[in-house]
Design brief:
- The structure holds 2 protein chains of 2 kinds.
- In chain A, the strands form 2 sheets. A 6-stranded mixed β-sheet of chain A has the order 6-7-8-3-9-10, sandwiched between helices. A 4-stranded antiparallel β-sheet of chain A has the order 2-1-4-5, covered by helices on one side.
- Chain A has helices at residues 40-46, 77-83, 98-108, 114-127, 131-134, 147-159, 177-190, 203-209, 227-232, 237-243; strands at 2-11, 14-24, 29-33, 57-65, 68-69, 84-87, 165-169, 195-199, 212-217, 220-226.
- In chain A, 36% of the residues lie in helices and 26% in strands.
- Chain A is of the alpha/beta class.
- Chain A has 10 helices and 10 strands.
- In chain B, helix 1 packs across helix 11, helix 4 (98-112) crosses helix 6 and helix 6 (136-160) crosses helix 8 (177-206).
- Chain B is globular and about 70 Å long.
- In chain B, strand 1 (52-53) and strand 2 (58-59) form a beta hairpin.
- Chain B is mainly α.
- Chain B has helices spanning 6-39, 45-49, 62-93, 98-112, 115-129, 136-160, 164-171, 177-206, 209-212, 234-243, 248-283; strands spanning 52-53, 58-59.
- Chain B has one domain (51-283): MetI-like fold (Orthogonal Bundle).
- Classes of the chains: A alpha/beta, B mainly alpha.
Chain lengths: 248, 285
């Protein structure tokens, strides 16, 4: 389970996240929606500490994954990121073969057993619904794949190290409609084994893929509840305005 | 006054630009052609494989070729690791604080120091203080220092050209920073790093001033036995037979031949390095 308690986050003097508390149950899909700059991506990146890479930032509050505050001093960030995988907005495969892209997280983890690696690569590619398309060209460069295939490769790459949570930062916004629907189908399937948090600008997408939705505005979590409720019968007027497109 | 139409103006402008860029090429070919024309006649197997003889008015340049190759290898060993690793430090690890700014300014200043000053410094530090004497090691260290800023700057540029998405992609998979740099970033940057190394080898092989007081021998008709020996070197040999020989008119063709060999060495290194680069690029594309 993921839980935040009174999270405040600052870029320099800019107060980007304001007192956010939220619980995300295991094996659910949670979507974050909201206008650009509302803090939803910043909030997403808290869970695998990618914000650590940005200089001059500050955090208060607690961010708990499986009963452990991941911002404690004793936490090994590389271990955390093996449990909390991430898929980025633009597909970013490495300039390596398809096989080596998926094997990368195992290799950096120190796995030497090549039979195990081969097996995990195959499983991950199957889980990412890419195996049938690439099984005959695992030795080919990942750059030869289409954009949508590259993004599914990035998902397979994230699955290989067996995380429990997958963060997706607008994973389909750079893809065509067919590739987008493939990613959405995939999210449905992955839900069985993983907890998925997805940031999206596409409200239909949020409605289609998620169990719960959080609406962010100006660094605040305005409303967070079942996706149906958010889209059909939200409590707050701002949410109503945003999901019906009357925002502004 | 009648207004000149825009497209005529444009044609005049681009015509001028084209002419100027052709001029650059023409000058290059002029120099090359001149040296080939003057020097090709003396180049034969004997010229490449024997020592100078008869007060350097005849014979070959073999010791100088070997000497220059020694200095290229030696100063590469000095400059490449130091340069590449310090560039990795400044552009990947150190952030953008005051220390990095200071290092960068100092690196640029180092690049601006005249090469003769490096020669004097090398003589004082490596030859005298450290007691290496006039030797390959003293010359390599001096040339290495000279070329260090070039290596650092081109490596930094190569690293900066790698989009951050590859760094965050690797880190998000649980790779450490060191793993990210050694497994993703450096291999990707390598083709461009090599370009910088080629430039620096070109510089190393042509420099005369820094080796003048640190390694170069006026006349030494045998090969070095260790890194503590002096060697002849092509640029210095060229200088010697051009201005201070016993019979300058007779040695003029030898000088052009020496220049041609120097150019060919740099050319061969450039071609093989860009071949290597193409191969690497293919592997990572």
């Amino acid at each position: 389970m993921l839980e935040t308690k009174n999270i405040n986050f600052y870029y320099g003097n800019f107060h980007a996240l304001k007192n956010i508390s939220m619980k995300i149950e295991n094996n659910t899909v949670v979507a974050f929606i909201g206008p650009s700059g509302c803090g939803k991506s910043t909030f997403l990146r808290l869970f695998n500490r990618m914000n650590d890479l940005i200089p001059d930032t500050r955090l208060t509050g607690e961010c708990i994954i499986n009963e452990e505050d991941i911002y404690q001093k004793s936490i090994d960030v590389t271990n955390l990121r093996k449990k909390v995988g991430m898929v980025f907005q633009k597909p970013n495969p490495f300039p390596k073969t398809i096989f080596e892209n998926v094997a990368y997280s195992l290799r950096v983890d120190g796995v030497k057993d090549s039979r195990f690696i081969t097996q995990r690569v195959e499983e991950s590619l199957k889980d990412a619904a890419l195996w049938d398309e690439v099984k005959d060209k695992l030795k080919k460069s990942a750059f030869e794949l289409s954009g949508g295939q590259q993004q599914r490769l990035c998902i397979a790459r994230a699955l290989a190290i067996s995380p429990s949570v997958i963060l997706m930062d607008e994973p389909a916004s750079a893809l065509d409609p067919i590739s987008t629907s493939k990613i959405e189908e995939l999210i449905h399937i992955l839900k069985k084994d993983y907890t998925i948090v997805i940031v999206t600008h596409n409200m239909q997408q949020a409605a289609r893929v998620s169990d719960k939705t959080g609406f962010f505005m100006l660094g605040e979590l305005v409303e967070y509840s079942d996706t149906k409720k958010i889209f059909m019968n939200p409590e707050k007027e701002e949410t109503q305005n945003y999901v019906t497109g009357r925002f502004g | 006054m009648k207004k000149i139409p825009l497209n005529v103006k444009q044609n005049i402008a681009f015509g001028t630009f084209r002419l100027l860029s052709l001029l650059v090429v023409a000058i290059l070919f002029w120099i090359l052609g001149f040296i080939i024309y003057q020097g090709a006649g003396v180049i034969n197997w004997k010229f490449l494989t024997t020592s100078p003889s008869d007060g350097m008015t005849s014979g070959g340049i073999f010791p100088a070729i070997v000497g220059t190759l020694c200095l290229i290898v030696g100063s590469s060993i000095v400059a490449f690791p130091v340069g590449i690793f310090s560039a990795v430090y400044t552009s990947e690890y150190a952030g953008n604080g005051n220390i990095v700014k200071f290092i960068r300014i100092m690196t640029n200043n180092l690049a601006g120091i005249p090469s003769i000053v490096f020669g004097l410094f090398g003589m004082s530090l490596f030859v005298n203080t450290m007691g290496f004497g006039d030797s390959i090691i003293a010359g390599s260290l001096t040339l290495g220092l000279l070329t260090l800023p070039l290596v650092i700057r081109t490596t930094e540029e190569a690293l900066k050209a790698i989009p951050d998405s590859f760094r965050s992609g690797s880190l998000a998979l649980g790779a450490s920073k060191l793993q990210t740099i050694s497994r993703i970033i450096l291999p990707m940057a390598f083709p461009n790093i090599i370009t910088g190394l080629i430039l620096s080898i070109g510089r190393i092989s042509g420099e005369t001033a820094p080796i003048l007081f640190t390694v170069a021998a006026y006349f030494l008709p045998h090969l070095p036995h260790s890194i503590y020996d002096q060697v002849m070197a092509l640029p210095y040999h060229l200088y010697v037979i051009s201005v201070s020989g016993t019979d300058l008119e007779a040695t003029r063709p030898l000088a052009y031949g020496t220049a041609l060999v120097l150019i060919l060495i740099v050319l061969i290194i450039n071609i093989s390095a860009s071949f290597l680069r193409k191969k690497l690029q293919k592997r990572h594309a």
